[in-house]
Amino acid sequence: MGFSEETRQRAREVIARYPADRSRSALLPLLHLVQSEEGYVSPAGVEFCADMLGLNKAQVGAVATFYTMYKRRPTGDYLVSVCTNTMCNVLGGQQVYDTLSEHLGVGHDETTADGTITLEHAECLAACDYGPVMTVNYDFFDKVDPDSAVGVVDELRAGGRPMPTRGARLCTLKEMSLQLAGFADPREGAVADGPAGDSTLRGLRLAQQNGITVAGFDPNTPIATKDGGTAPAGSAKSAEAAGVAANKPASDAKPAGDNAGQRERSLKEAEK
Amino acid sequence: MTQPRRETLEKLTPVLTKRWLSPDAWRMDVYEQLDGYAALRKALAVHPDDLIQLVKDSGLRGRGGAGFPTGLKWGFIPQNDGKPHYLVVNADEGEPGTCKDLPLMTHDPHSLVEGVIIASYAIRANRAFIYIRGEAVHAARRLRNAVQEAYAKGYLGRNILGSGFDLDLVVHSGAGAYICGEETALLDSLEGFRGQPRLRPPFPATHGLYASPTVVNNVGTIASVPYIVLGGAAWWKTMGTEKSSGPMIYSLSGRVANPGQYECSMGVTLRELLELAGGMQPGHNLRFWTPGGSSTPLLTADHLDVPLDFEGVAAAGSILGTTATQIFSDQDCPVYATYRWLEFYHHESCGKCTPCREGNYWMVRVYRRILSGQGTHEDLDTLLDTCDNILGRSFCGLGDGATSSVTSSLKFFKQDYLDYIEGRTAPRLSEKSLVGAH
């Protein structure tokens, strides 16, 4: 499929965030961007990224297949990830995953026939103090058990949007991918969603209840200076330009000894 | 639950976590009311070298696991070299058990942004990147919002607060690869490549991002900087131990009554942390634990009084790591726990070097065989032999870390392995998961 002009414009915005001549740095966000339009990284999405960055499709494909979050097949509106790494696993995460898999009739990285849910088992999601955890489009449902997890997916399939325990109200996987490409969440109030959970605040509350603070903090403590302390002005912009010129990227973005652009063109012509 | 004793409570040092109690501290106006951006003003008034010296004097060491002295790292950046310098924040939190950077970025994102500006000024960088784990979507929302607010206030962009210092900051989301927490793999990923580690030397201090001098620091390290600038090095050193100064966020998970984040003076012991956390869950007795994530060798109930600082944990044969203490009880099986971690390392191995890629692949299969009741005594030798070929022979720390739980669990819990092999423990895995194990 052809990508929309809006997506092209967004791609240009993404590229502009990185230094000139270092546009390849925009590849990861661009892959999130194409996923936001198609729900996965399709061959057309790979080609789009390649075109935007002056790379060939093999180079983009090599990157896209390396990272777990880039999906290779169409996904559902909601990606349900159940942590089955050691801690969540022993606390019941494996049963949660097995129950969901049976309930939904899909395995790892598979999507329900109605196109609502893609299920996956995930490695540590960095919320071990709330284990076992599950995320929907990477927003957290804490301390889940098989029943509560089934409740969440049933509500999703019935068109509802259950509120995560922490994090923002749910959006679709495509909408979330756009945020991962570096664009602000446009939903009013979504950034404010998600209070700190009990485990997050446990140590702090204990300190507060018992009047524990760190003594001796004076924000006006002077900083020792070597020479009486005058801050230098001046930017290193010109230095940056000189450095960019002096240092080629780690790779020149082309296979060694290979005129990739020409080959790509010949391939396209051959396909016609 | 029993109330912790006063002397144990006094180990709590709420510094980096303190603003989390203010529900709107992620907003600029609230952050500014809570000392926010005061450190930046103070820092911009002194010479960058004085800030590097201040951080050296504070004894701050990297909070990402390795514990490298931060001021020293900053000092390695060559000055007046005519090259651009970069600051890259490693926010790719993913070490199993570790869960301290996500709450920090979610509830107090400006402290990281302020630390980034000060650190960039110190090392003379005009561009900085926060490489945040892809899955951390809500933390990224808050962080991007904070960056936008900081630009609007003139804390980022051109001529910050009239100092003549310019800085652009980009929040860059990863895409699900644990290996990108390794600093050179992170740099490759940030340059738009597969996240695979680079050969060192040269080190990032001279040839980092875009082959230019680069400092890569963890979230907690950079978020510590504003407090050191405000309170001074001497105050910072009132917390922690002589060689491991300051507060540290300890993340307790597992079979404890109250799992969660406990910011304590560095050098607190697990016995004290357990007291703060209300003890073990009823019916559970401590059996094994990780001091700092799954890449650190397991410790046992014999190590309750080990000071959890860089030196203390090393002396006990493990690593402080990310201070992610995952706590397991007598109802948890160390063989199964290790197997699950190995599945993780096997999945996350980037494939660049043979020992890690092949070693983890085979060890997972040996574990499956043991756990399905078909293991042999030779399997234990095979595991140790494989670890011997991974540790120190892998391209980066991922492979080394993978061996930690294998060798330590075999050291402390060999009987558990033998019980599976000799049929005293019922198989944990079924036949179907055995495909390819022989």
- Taken as a percent bin, the fraction of beta residues of chain A is 5-15%
- Low-confidence parts of chain A: 229-239, 247-267
What percent of residues of chain B are in strands? Answer: 5-15%
Order of helices and strands of chain A: HHHHEHEEEEHHHHH
CATH architecture of the domain at 78-171 in chain A: 3-Layer(aba) Sandwich
Instruction: Let me know the largest β-sheet of chain A.
Output: 5 strands, mixed
- Taking strands numbered 1, 2, ... along the chain, how are they ordered across the largest sheet of chain B? 6-5-9-7-8
What distance separates the N and C termini of chain B?
49 Å
CATH superfamily of the domain at 35-238 in chain B: NADH-ubiquinone oxidoreductase 51kDa subunit
Question: Can you offer a commentary on this structure?
Answer:
The complex is a heterodimer of chains A (272) and B (438). Chain A is an alpha+beta fold. Among the domains of chain A are: 1-74 and 173-187, NADH-quinone oxidoreductase subunit E (Arc Repressor Mutant, subunit A, Orthogonal Bundle), CATH 1.10.10.1590; 78-171, Glutaredoxin, CATH 3.40.30. In chain A, 43% of the residues lie in helices and 7% in strands. Chain A has ten helices and five strands; from the N terminus they run ααααβαββββααααα. Chain A has helices at 5-16, 27-38, 43-53, 57-64, 86-104, 146-157, 173-180, 198-209, 237-246, 260-271, and strands at 78-83, 110-111, 117-122, 134-136, 139-141. Chain A has a five-stranded mixed β-sheet with strand order 2-3-1-4-5. In chain A, a hairpin with a 2-residue loop joins strand 4 and strand 5 (139-141). In chain A, helix 1 (5-16) packs antiparallel against helix 2, helix 3 (43-53) packs across helix 4 (57-64) and helix 5 (86-104) crosses helix 6. Residues 229-239 and 247-267 of chain A have low confidence and may be disordered. By secondary structure, chain B is α/β, with parallel strands linked by helices. Chain B has helices at residues 6-9, 28-33, 38-44, 48-58, 70-75, 101-107, 109-123, 137-152, 183-190, 204-207, 219-231, 233-236, 270-276, 310-315, 334-348, 354-371, 377-390, 397-412, 414-421, and strands at residues 86-91, 127-132, 168-173, 214-218, 247-254, 260-265, 286-290, 299-300, 324-329. A five-stranded mixed β-sheet of chain B has the order 6-5-9-7-8, with helices on one face. In chain B, strands 3-2-1-4 form a four-stranded parallel β-sheet, sandwiched between helices. Among the domains of chain B are: 35-238, NADH-ubiquinone oxidoreductase 51kDa subunit (Rossmann fold), CATH 3.40.50.11540; 334-433, NADH-ubiquinone oxidoreductase 51kDa subunit, iron-sulphur binding domain (de novo design (two linked rop proteins)), CATH 1.20.1440. In chain B, helix 6 (101-107) packs across helix 7 (109-123) and helix 15 (334-348) packs antiparallel against helix 18 (397-412). Mean pLDDT of chain B is 96; it is low at 434-438. Chain B is built from 19 helices and nine strands.
